[in-house]
Design the sequence.
C-alpha cells in the first residue's frame, strides 16, 4: 500500500493488468494506476486479497508487530491508512508532480478549473512519476 497509494478497501475489487503494469479500480475512482516496479513481484499475492478486516487482523498488524513498528511514536496503533500518508509523503519527497500524485491516490484534482478540466496524464506519464519513488 505504501507504493500504490490505494485505500485498503480498494484491493478486494482491483483488476490487475500485469502485461501493461497497471491496477484498475478503487473506492472513489476506477482510474488505472501504474504498478511501482518495487512491488511488481508481489502482485500475484493480491489475487486472493482478503476483506479489509481480515487483512488488518491476520496480516497487517502481525507483520508490523514482528517488525517492532506496530505503534506510532505517539503510542497509537498504525492503520493501513497510514500507508496512504506514507505514499503521499514519498511522492512529495521524490518530486512527483501534484496532479499525478492526486490521480495516483484517487483524489479529485484541485479545485481550480484548469486542473479539473485540462490536467490529463497517460499511464506512461504516471509510470514515469511513480518510478521517481525509490525503494
Sequence:
Amino acid at each position: 500500500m505504501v507504493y500504490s497509494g490505494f485505500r485498503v478497501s480498494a484491493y478486494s475489487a482491483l483488476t490487475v493488468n500485469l502485461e501493461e503494469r497497471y491496477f484498475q479500480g478503487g473506492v472513489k475512482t476506477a482510474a488505472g494506476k501504474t504498478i511501482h516496479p518495487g512491488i511488481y513481484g508481489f502482485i500475484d499475492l493480491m489475487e486472493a486479497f482478503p476483506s479489509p478486516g481480515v487483512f488488518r487482523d491476520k496480516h497487517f498488524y502481525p507483520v508490523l508487530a514482528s517488525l517492532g513498528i506496530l505503534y506510532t511514536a505517539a503510542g497509537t496503533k498504525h492503520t493501513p491508512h497510514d500507508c496512504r500518508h506514507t505514499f503521499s509523503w514519498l511522492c512529495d519527497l521524490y518530486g512527483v508532480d501534484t496532479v499525478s500524485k492526486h490521480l495516483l491516490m484517487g483524489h479529485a484534482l484541485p479545485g481550480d478549473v484548469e486542473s479539473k478540466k485540462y490536467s490529463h496524464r497517460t499511464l506512461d506519464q504516471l509510470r514515469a512519476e511513480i518510478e521517481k519513488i525509490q525503494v
